[in-house]
Specification:
Elements lengths: L16 H9 L37 E9 L5 E5 L5 E4 L7 E10 L2 E11 L25 H18 L8 H4 L17 E7 L2 E2 L12 E2 L3 E5 L7 E3 L8 H13 L19 E10 L6 E9 L4 H11 L5 E8 L11 E7 L2 E6 L2 E6 L8 H15 L8 E5 L5 H7 L4 E6 L2 H13 L5 E5 L18 E4 L8 H10 L3 E6 L2 H13 L10 E9 L9 E8 L1
Parallel strand pairs: 3-5, 7-10, 12-13, 17-18, 17-20, 18-19, 20-21
Antiparallel strand pairs: 1-2, 1-4, 2-3, 4-5, 6-9, 6-11, 7-8, 9-10, 11-12, 13-14, 15-16, 21-23, 22-23
Helix pairs in contact: 2-10
Bound molecules: S-adenosylmethionine (SAM).
GO molecular function: RNA methyltransferase activity; S-adenosylmethionine-dependent methyltransferase activity
GO biological process, one term: RNA processing
Pfam families: tRNA_U5-meth_tr
Length: 546
């Protein structure tokens, strides 16, 4: 069935930069001006610059005494110089913390700073249960009380909706739009997928350094990348975010892989020599028993199964391990998706259940990373969709991945059309539809950044559009399509409140400098915490046609 109108279906690198111009240029509108500053091209830094600070701009390398006031996009602390009020952004600074920091980078009208020493700790301080918390790039806010993490996330969404989205928080109707964040019941062990890297250069945590030690060590490592470094790996024996079963596998691999008799070498990203690149662990559930099942995926630079055999023998003895895969990636890139995939033990997929359906997950398929909270998220999406329940609606599921959102509502609607750029995800979506005996779903591969005027013209008109883009949000072509389509309801699921706020602005208020009028009304924004201890924020937004 040919229903798509994509001039080209190839994947392309998504880049948020072209949007910056659009975000900045619409500051000519009468609503409150947005901050001209930008955090790593995706969001905006809060506008805190006090008049007194304009005369003060710190020099690179300068050490300053700072106080952190709040958390902003990507979990960076918004900090002020004690004497002048000048704003600096600092990774791992938490609200209330007074500290010494060294200026590392100047950016527009603010600067970035590296924390050197805490003078007085932040408010809501708790002990981080993980021994790697102070250095690991995975969890940045483990030592901030969970309630404070939630408050900070909620505040960020509110700030972005007002500054970037141009919705007024003074308007009582608008104030009621922003719902309190939904917490995650599972604070640890919530991730069903972790990817560890093998490395030739080990990164030592600052607090375990002796005076004469450098942070970079020669020893081999298996763990997570040191924040901001592609070539340094923090050695990790156990991760509190993944399942206990996955930690059993990690422990067995850590126990054996450096044994010289095994002759296993980590891949060196500088010399491009070495064999082991990544260890990916995915946890699903056995559909019949509900017990965890684990897939182990070794990403290697070449196909040498004999070399892996001793490790496989040990890992396959762990009862939860039902699948061992090998993705071979001979390119110099850091990706874990191999150009060839081999099954080394057991099955080539694991299963997970979501809203009563069963999903098969292969080594490289996209699946919501927190299955427990995905259940909550999908229920919210379905509630927002406001289905009549008579099976009459047409639903467009844009950025559908493996089809999970569309499939979980398919039984209550007439037809679901899913669009997604990754061909393998589309195959998974079709297979998942079959597995769950769903026949009213059509999944189409195509790039939603490259749609043309004919896009969707051979589909029945959609009553509901569900959007779940990744971090860069919606391309202007898609915004224009949605404004022309005028579906009664749009449910926008976002993992980036900055680009989400921008897109909501376009859909509701239009794009003045392009003569585009908005036609939607923002009815609700529901932040959901999918990833405790990390800066990530998910939002489910409901728009209705005005
Ligand atoms: C956040 S995921 C959502 C997946 C799915 N809705 C779910 O809940 O599992 C975003 C999806 O958008 C896809 N995607 C990214 N850019 C795209 C584009 N330009 N056109 C179509 N799909 C795209 C990604 O491959 C990914 O599967």
């Amino acid at each position: 069935m040919a229903v798509a109108a994509f001039p080209s279906c190839g994947a392309r690198r998504l880049n948020a930069r072209p949007w910056l111009h659009a975000v900045r240029s619409s500051a000519s509108s009468p609503s409150p001006p947005r901050s001209p500053t930008d955090v790593d091209g995706l969001g905006t830094a809060p506008t805190y610059t006090a008049a007194a600070s304009r005369s003060f701009f710190p020099k690179r390398g300068q050490t300053l005494e700072l106080v952190c006031e709040s958390l902003a996009f990507k979990g960076k602390g918004v900090c002020k110089v004690v004497d002048t009020g000048f704003v600096l952004m600092c990774d791992r600074a938490l609200p209330g913390e007074r500290f010494l920091g060294r200026v590392s980078r100047k950016k527009g009208n603010y600067a970035e700073v590296t924390k050197l020493k805490t003078i007085t700790p932040h408010w809501d301080l708790v002990e981080a249960p993980c021994e790697y918390a102070s250095s690991c790039g995975g969890c940045k806010t483990q030592n901030l009380a969970y309630e404070a993490q939630l408050r900070a996330k909620e505040q960020q969404v509110r700030d972005l909706i007002v500054r970037v989205g141009r919705f007024s928080d003074g308007d009582p109707e608008c104030a009621s739009v922003l719902k309190p964040i939904v917490p995650c019941d599972l604070k640890f062990h919530y991730r069903n997928k972790m990817e560890f890297s093998f490395g030739a250069r080990r990164w030592i945590q600052i607090d375990s350094l002796t005076d004469d030690q450098d942070q970079i060590q020669r020893g081999h490592a298996l763990g997570l990348h040191a924040p901001g470094f592609f070539d340094k790996v923090l050695h990790i024996e156990k991760c509190l975010l993944q399942s206990e079963a996955a930690n059993k596998v990690l422990a067995v691999v850590q126990d054996s892989w450096r044994d010289p008799d095994l002759n296993l070498s980590p891949y060196d990203v500088h010399t491009h020599a070495g064999f082991l690149k990544h260890l990916m662990l995915r946890t699903g559930r056995d559909v019949k028993t509900g017990l965890p099942e684990v897939m182990v995926n070794f990403v290697t630079s070449s196909y040498r199964p004999k070399l892996l055999e001793p490790l496989i023998n040990k890992i396959s003895a762990i009862p939860e391990v039902v699948s061992i895969m090998n993705n071979v990636n001979s390119s110099v890139g850091n990706t874990s998706v191999g150009e060839e995939e081999y099954k080394l033990h057991g099955k080539s997929t694991i299963t997970e259940m979501l809203r009563g359906l069963t999903f098969q997950i292969s080594a490289n398929s996209f699946f919501q990373t927190n299955s427990h909270q995905a259940e909550v998220l999908y229920k919210l999406i379905e509630d927002c969709a406001g289905l009549r329940g008579d099976g009459s609606e047409i639903v467009l599921d844009l950025f559908c991945g493996t089809g999970t959102i569309g499939l979980t509502i398919a039984k209550r609607v007439r037809h679901v059309y899913g669009y997604e750029v990754v061909a393998e995800a589309i195959s998974d979506a079709r297979r998942n539809a079959e597995l769950n005996d769903i026949r009213n779903g059509t999944f189409i591969q195509g790039d939603l950044n490259k749609i043309n005027d004919k896009f969707g013209s051979d589909l029945p008109k959609a009553d509901i559009v569900i959007l779940d883009p990744n971090r860069p949000g919606l391309h202007m072509k898609l915004i224009k399509y949605l404004l022309k389509l005028q579906a009664a309801r749009v449910v926008y699921v976002s993992c980036n409140p900055a680009t989400c706020a921008r897109d909501l602005d376009y859909l509701c208020h239009g794009v003045a400098d392009q003569g585009i009028r908005g036609c939607y009304q923002l009815k609700s924004i529901q932040p959901v915490d999918m990833f405790p201890h990390t800066p990530h924020i998910e939002c489910v937004c409901l728009l209705e046609l005005r």
